[in-house]
Amino acid sequence: MSFSDLFDSEFKQRNKGHFSAIVRVALADGTLHPEEKSFLDKLAAQLEISETEYEEILSDPLKYPINPPYLHVQRLERLYDLTRMVHVDHHLEDKQEVMLRKLGIALGFTPSNVNYIIAKALSLVDKKVDADTFVYEMQHMHK
C-alpha cells in the first residue's frame, strides 16, 4: 500500500465518521424528514460517500466513531454542518438539540461551554449565514 493510499483511506474514514455523526442528529427524533434526506444526499456527495456506504451508515450510524479534527477551524466547520442538519427541517426538537450538544462535546468543545456554543451556532444558522461567516463569528464571539 502506498503512502497516498494510506492518506486517502484515513481521509475517507474521517468523512464517514463525520457523515455518521450528522446521520445521528437527523435520526435523533426517530424520523428522517424529506428535507433532512435531501441535505444528507448533498452532503454525502460532498464527502465522497458512496451509495453503499450511505445505506450502511443510515442503517447503523454508530458504526463509525466521531473523529474530532485537530484544528479548531475544522471543528467549527463540522459544527456548522451538524447545526444545519438540526435546523434543516425548520423546527428544533428536544432530542436533536440534546444530540447536538453530545456531538459538540465529541467534537472537542468543553462541557462547561458547549451550551453557549450550541446556542450561538443555532442562532447563526437561523440567520442563514454561510460557512465562512459562521466560522468567523464563532471564533470572535467573546470579543
TrEMBL record:
Native source organism of the sequence: Flavobacterium cheongpyeongense
InterPro entries: DjlA_N, TerB-like
Segments forming domain Co-chaperone DjlA N-terminal: 20-57
Gene3D superfamilies the record matches: TerB-like
Protein name per UniProt: Fructose 1,6-bisphosphatase
SUPFAM superfamilies assigned to the protein according to its UniProt record, in alphabetical order: TerB-like
A family per Pfam: TerB
